[in-house]
Every structure is written in C-alpha cells, then in structure tokens.
Amino acid sequence: MDSLLGAEILKTRKRWMPYVILLFLIVGTAVLIWLAGYLSWREETDPAFRRDALRIFAFPWSIPALLDAGQFWGAFVVGILAASSVGTEHGWGTVRQAIVRGQSRSKYLAIKLLGVTIMSAVILLIGLAVGVGFSFIASSLADQRITLDVPGGPSVPEIGLMVLRAGFAIVPYGMLAFCLGVLSRSTSLGVTGGLIFLFGEAIALAILTTIGGVAADARELAIGHNVAALLTANGIGEPPDLWVLAPRDRLLASELPNPNIAGFVLALWSFAFGAIAFYVFQHRDLKA
Amino acid sequence: MAMRERSFLDAGEFHDEDWDVTTAASAGNSSVVLRTVGLSKRYGKRLALADLHLQVPAGRVYGFLGPNGAGKTTCISLILGLIAPSAGHVEMLGFDTRTHLSQALRRTGAILEGPAFYPNLSARDNLRVWGALSGGVEPARLDELLGTVGLGERGGDKVRNYSLGMKQRLALAGALLHDPELLLLDEPTNGLDPAGIREFRQLIRELGRSGKTVFVSSHLLNEVEQMCDEVAIIKDGRLITQGTVSELVQRSDVMEMRVTDVPAAMEVLRGLDWVGGVTHEDGRILVEGPRERAAELSRALAEQQIYLSELRAKESSLEDFFLEVTAQEGGRG
Asked: I need a surface site. Which of A75, A217, B184, B205 has the fewest CB within 10 A?
C-alpha cells in the first residue's frame, strides 16, 4: 500500500462516492436490461418494437447496448471522479501538504490521474459485469439461447475490443472534467463544466448536422461525433433504435469518421486537456 | 529519527529551566541549512515580501516572528515551493530550490498554517498517505509517532472527528514522519491548549537538541523566546532584524530599586560618575549602569543612611523588544 498509487486508491476507496456511483450504474443497467429491454419485449405486441427490445437485453446484443449507455453514463461518473479527485484536495488543503513532501507537481497529478483511471475502470467493469449478468438472466427468462453465435456476432477478443472502444470514448470527457477541476480547484465546477459540455456539444452537433455543408464537416473535430463513430463500430448487426439512452448523433457508420481516425482525434483532445491541466498546475501558486 | 518514544502529553521529562538558549546557540553548528536570498513576492501592486535575506544555522531552533499579515506564511510558502517568488531564491539543505526543490523537500518536514487532512481517513491512514508521498514508512513508525504526539489511542478515529488541537498534533506527526533534518512549522501551536503548547515547546526543544533544525513561525512571543535560539522579526514583508535571542534581548544595564527616601537616593545616585541615568517610575528608581557594580551602589546609599528594600536587574523580554522594534518600524512607515 505504501506506494503513491496505493495511497491514491486508498483515498478514493475510503470515500462513499465511488460506491454511490457504482450503485447508480447498477440501477442504470437494471433499467436498461429489465425495463427498456425485457419488460418492453414481454409487454409489446408490435414485432419491430419487440425485435428492438430483444436487442437491448438479449445476449450478445446487450453488450453494445450496455457499452453505449455505459459510455454516456460512464463519461458522467468518470467526470465526477476526476473532478472530485483534484477539487476535494484543493478544498481540504491537502494538495499543499502533498507537494511539500517532495513530490514533483507533475508526478502528483500523474498519480492522481492514474488513480482515477483505475478506480473508474474497476467501477465501470463491475457495472458492465452486472449488466451482462442481468442480460444472461433476462435472456434465459425469454428462452433466448446465450451464445455469441448470431449473425455478425463478435468473438471473445472482439468483445474486448468493444469494451476498449467504449472505455476510450470516455477518456476525453474524464480528461475534460479533470482539467476543469484543476483549473477551477473545485469539484462542482469541474463536474458542472463537464456536464454542460456533454449536453451542449450534443446540441451543437445536432445543429451542425441540420445546417449541413461545411458546418456538418466541422463535426469531424468534435468529441461527440468521434465517440459516435467508435460506438457505432461496436454494433452487432443492425442497431436497435431503443438504445438511445445517450444524447448523441445517431448516424450510419458511413456518415461517421473511420473508427481509427476517431480514436486519434479523441486522443488529441484528451492530450490537450491533460496538457492544460499539467501546465496550469505546474505553474500555479498553491496558497492556503 | 533518534527521538525517544514518549507521549507528547508526558510533560514530566523536560523542564523549561533546564534549557539555556545561549548555551544551545553557542554549541550549535555554524553551517547554514536554510538561506533566502533577496526573496520577494508581489501580488499585483502589493508587496507581500520584500528582499528577504534569512540565514538559518544548522541544529538551531529558529523563530520567525511578525505581526499578523507580516508575510510569515508567504515566506514559508515560498521556501516550500508552494508559491513562486517574484524575485530571489531559496537555498535549503545545500540545494538551490529553483532546480532541486524535490530533493530538498524530501529532507524537510513542514506544518502549514491550518492543518489539512483527509477527513474521511483515520489518523493512521492519513499518515500512511503522507508516508507514501514521502517515499514510504514502516507501519511501526506510524504507531511510534502517533504515540509520540499523544494520539496513540485515537489513531483509528476518522480525522473529521478530531479537535483542532488533535489535528495540530497529527500535523506534527506528519511532519516528523520521514525523520527530516529541517522542520518548517507555521504557527504550529494554533489550537493547542496551554498544556499542549507547553508540551509542544518541550518537543521542539528536544528536536533541536537532537540536531534537527527547526524553523518556527509564531506570534506567541513568550513561546518563541523560550524555545528558540535565534529569531528573525519581519513586518510588512520586510526583515526588521535577526539574531540570537540573547543578542536581541540583551539584558539591559538597568537596575531597579526601592528605597526608604527616593529624592535623597536620586541625588546620591546622580552623583556617581559611573551611573548613566537615574529616573523615577511607579515608586521605583531606575538606574542605568553595569550590574556588576550593584554593591557599590548599595554602599553609596547606605553611607547616606538610605537603605534599599529591593534591588534587582531590570530584564527585558523578547516581547518588549518585539513591540519596541515593530512600533519603531511602524512609526517610520
């Protein structure tokens, strides 16, 4: 435990917030699988609607559905964790205590970022595992065979790649919240700023799509547009309309950037947010 | 750290009168462990610290005095690299902190003004976190330090339930965690009750005796006088003076006395050629002159049938000196 990373994780896991976030995610997956998926499938009579509902809760279609919703809510909760990890240390004054112990500022921030990444990954993976567990149960109740052998179904390594894509699509939002947390020295401003961006960008992208032309081309640089590209690459067969739990572009793969390019753009955004955070923290006066 | 394991509350082991600051000062190492060179900090138009030159010798307890807002915390924050100077630099433990701040800080312990902790963690876990930041410490060391500062029984309690005094004790444990050579303490007795202040003073003295250098800012002049070998006084961001306590609080060559006949005594005393001045104040006569000649003074009065009911050297305190110099500086400003 007596390592910097161990100390960082100790600080986080001794707070109530990660457990509330995990509970929130589990409730979210329950809503998705049971309410939007299984109950809709059972109660509806319209074949098209039942087919879409089945693709939400039945394995393996439930995986992209969970990852899509998980990316959106994950961006939200990772933003809270990231902004909180720096904001609370400023609020408590512990950031000054840490720096006077001889840690370089960049190392302090890097460890903090690594701690947030690990805690976020653990929470999100637990949420995903619970969601997949719900999916297994719901599939069994619906007399659906639990198998990857469906048209366009992924292999196990491909499932890993899908998880990585969805996780990577969370990173820019986490880095944005982290950056805002560092700039504002406040958890609430970091979280609020991240949320405003998340919803504001979705609205802006919708407007750009409506305008079309050069305005639509400008979306290529937007985080949300590239996130949509990554998540669309996760689809198994034709995606159902019902997984629209996240406010994002619902475009065909042909209208979205290549997933590799999308990943590169998201990496650039993440790097930019990180660079701003590190630069500001490195050069800032840490007053009481 | 070579400190003996004992409770911070165990005040019986050391006695104030055992300590002689002049002895400690003269016995100390003459090398400088902390030096500020023209250190300045400006916030907009306000100059918080102006061209500060401090020299803290090794193995001393160095007091840093100043009225509220004088720039003490700014100075300590500059030394610790928490804020960047507008001009000047700091040399600490042989390192120029402009280029080797981390190396210097790893051998330094600090209590910042207003102790800050993770309120959701226990005292022991707080120390574990600080220990990790300091390069790692053995679990036994945590218990040893909690015992030293008198928190052994409460080490598992969450810090959010601690009083300010307990937090100060924990802050001291945190500062000592990695057995630093230099301690920088900003108002460390804030929140401590009188007994706690006394215990703290004893611990600081013990640290000084063990060879550590302690730089302590305080506005409690009596405390500083009793625990420090040297002091610096700043006001409005400017250094007014620095030196050993004994230098600054020179026993003034003034004797005060009570006699049977004040007017006659004053006349006799004014007739002595080695007496510098004679004044009358609140029924006492103050005589400027070397204390070694007190017997001659007594004899001169007795020869004129004037008898002493009291004769003693008038001593000034650091508080007197502080108020005098800060008032002078204020007057000039």
From this structure: A217
Q: Is residue A19 part of a domain?
A: yes
CA nearest neighbour of B204 among B172, B180, B233, B231: B172
Please state the ipTM of this predicted complex. Answer: 0.85
Ranges of H-type helices in B250-314: 262-270, 294-303
Residue A201: which domain range? 2-148+156-282
Range of the domain at B291: 253-313
Task: From residue A180, give the alpha-carbon distance in Å to each of A86, A153, A174, A269.
Answer: 9, 40, 10, 14
Task: Give the closest of B102, B116, B120 to A15, CB-based.
Answer: B120
Residue B95 identity (one-letter amino acid): F
Sorted by sequence, the CB contacts under 8 Å of residue B171 that are 6+ apart come out as B111, B112, B115, B117, B188
Q: Are B296 and B184 contained in the same domain?
A: no
- Domains in chain B, number: 2
pLDDT digits (tens, 9 = 90+) for A48-90: 889 889 989 999 999 999 999 999 999 999 999 999 999 999 9
Do B101 and B220 lie in one domain? The reply is yes
Whole-number Cα distances in Å, B100 to A285, B80, B218: 18, 12, 28
- CB-closest option in B83, B84, B105 to A101: B105
Q: Which of residues 140-199 of B touch A (CB under 8 A)?
A: 174, 178
- How would you class B292 by CB atoms within 10 Å of its CB: exposed for 0-12, middle for 13-18, buried for 19 or more? exposed
Residue A111 φ/ψ, nearest 5 degrees: -65, -40
A242-272 pLDDT per residue, tens: 555 666 667 777 778 899 999 999 999 999 9
| pTM exceeds 0.90 | no
CATH number at residue B305: 3.30.70.1340
Q: What is the pLDDT of residues A116-145, one digit of tens each?
A: 999 999 999 999 999 999 999 999 999 999
Question: Which chain A residues touch B112 with a CB distance below 8 Å?
Answer: 93, 96-97, 100, 288
Q: What letter does residue A285 receive in the DSSP assignment? A: -
Query: Which of B81, B82, B132 is nearest residue A2 as measured by Cβ atoms?
Result: B132
